[in-house]
Specification:
The chain is α+β, with helices and mostly antiparallel strands. The chain contains three helices and nine strands. Strands 1-7-3-4 form a four-stranded antiparallel β-sheet, with no helix packed on it.
Length: about 170
């Protein structure tokens, strides 16, 4: 059940919580700053715009290149020109461990499920659980195969601190 709720939170957030390395192509929007979908942005190891490798700029100096903060890559003397899949970057993003507020949100969600009587003891042959209407489908090996059926409780959903796809959960007090 913890795995199902964790995956549902991960889907809601829209980005991987734990630190990982990514190489992705993006569409340019004719901007000087580019926001990656995975946060926090830890480091950028390469940036290519329209086939041109952009060098890393030196912090504190006004040389050409790129720099990054926890949310975005900034071009210094370069633009993320408009185009289809014309930006390729390799970067590391995410937290080294699950942030406490997200972990607490998962635990609170589990508590709500159990306290509302929406969860009974799960047998070894349950293949699907739907927390909203307490239905259990039997006949499998015990894995929950349809986490989309477990709706996020309003108590958890309502405490998001950031806009969608960059949302965070905090402990309910």
């Amino acid at each position: 059940m913890i795995g199902v709720v964790s995956r549902q939170i991960q889907t809601f957030l829209g980005f991987n919580v734990l630190q990982a390395s990514y190489t992705k192509a993006f569409d340019g929007q004719e901007t000087r700053r580019f926001f990656v979908p995975d946060i926090p942005l830890v480091s950028v190891s390469s940036l290519i715009i329209n086939g041109i490798t952009i060098p890393r700029a030196t912090p504190g100096k006004f040389d050409l290149g790129y720099l990054n903060n926890a949310n975005a890559i900034e071009g210094r003397g370069y633009f993320f020109t408009r185009g289809f899949q014309n930006i390729t970057t390799t970067y590391i993003a995410g937290s080294q461990s699950v942030p406490q507020n997200i972990e607490q949100g998962c635990l609170d969600w589990m508590k709500i499920i159990y306290l509302n009587g929406q969860m009974t003891t799960i047998g070894g042959n349950v293949v699907k659980v739907s927390a909203g209407d307490t239905s259990l489908d039997f006949g499998g090996t015990g894995y929950v195969t349809d986490p989309k059926k477990i709706s996020m409780p309003i108590q958890i959903y309502a405490v998001q601190e950031l806009p969608p796809r960059r949302a965070g959960l905090r402990h309910l007090t």
